[in-house]
Amino acid sequence: MSGHGTPIPMTSRACGPLTGEANVPGDKSISHRSLILGAMAVGETRIFGLLEGEDVLDTAKAMQAFGAEVTNHGDGEWSVQGVGVGGFAEPDGVIDCGNSGTGVRLIMGAMATSGITVTFTGDASLNKRPMARVTDPIALFGAQSVGRSGGRLPMTIVGASDPVPVRYNVPMPSAQVKSAVLLAGLNAPGQTVVIEKEATRDHTERMLTGFGAEVSVETTDEGRVITLTGQPELKPQTITVPRDPSSAAFPVCAAIITPGSDVLVPNIGLNPTRAGLFTTLREMGADLVYENEREEGGEPVADLRARFSPDLKGIEVDPARAASMIDEYPVLSVVACFAQGDTVMKGVKELRVKESDRIDAMATGLRLNGVDVDEGEDWWIVHGRGHGNVAGGGTCESHLDHRIAMSFMVMGMATNAPVSVDDGGPIATSFPVFEPLMETLGAKIERLTI
Asked: What is the C-alpha to C-alpha distance for residues 19 and 354, in angstroms, rounded to an integer?
């Protein structure tokens, strides 16, 4: 069952060449942070190109519940009239973050050092996900939390009315945890320090600096050390959201495995903490070119041209790259099916605590479609069959996970028999125009009646 309504079974089947321009939505990570930091600034922040998927819309509703004025002006243009650091009001009702782990964890951090009490919930998938990774560090500031067993939602957090600054070593590579601690540190006196052993996406640090916070980053023997000076007055910004590399992954990978394809995906954010998939695809022999490289809003951007690549080779993906492409491993595993030889993915245990256990979900679905997969707790290997040799024909469970559903829809575009998913409804959480966009390029995706 979908956490967002009646299940929507979908089937994808082999198609002709994918051609044209794929205008994917705005970056989800930057969209969440734009709304939250806009709500914590003093004055009006204007946002252009906001991703209007369900996850981000849930964050917009949350910021309204905290007292910010959030307005949709149409065509991806939004404004946020902020209430300032420490200015959040106590919401009248429960904050429902839907399917978004990013949304709920960042919002928990942002409110943790305000003297308000907030109850959070989500859909069936989000309510299974671990929240202790955020509630543990925000407790160091003085916040208290009570949730279901295993640190799961629904959960009530009592913010610290007299917060103290924190020095925190992030125990796992997680931009969500790092960001939650930094957002909590905004309303704490003195300096909050976050140390991460492996660099994760750095949108929060970049955007905090853009909004006028004092942030320093240095690399030491401990790792990457981020120091934030608390209680700044954040200044409102005008933000143009680059298009999402995680969304771009789907038309890019579809073009690479579908014979005759040539697809341009313009204006994609290529932040080095996010672009690991594209580096990996090139290492596998993919015909993937960066065109018109430039910088917009402090973020590197380029147009991606992806063409059919018949001579893909399996590789061992550098584990140090995992944090920069953690959300893209599901669709990478699809590409790996069409390569010659084994694609080995290690250091990826974070995949087991995403919207679903993504290793298990993808391994099970790939096997249903005739591909051999080996897996362990933090690794998996896809035994590639080469172009023209991937059977298809399976019906896979999406597990309420948008990336699982889209990955199998991409797979079906190049398999010998169609590939189906039991529920494509969750795709709307991050990529609401996925179906029409892919169909415009030439894909054959069909919604089934039940």
From this structure: 32
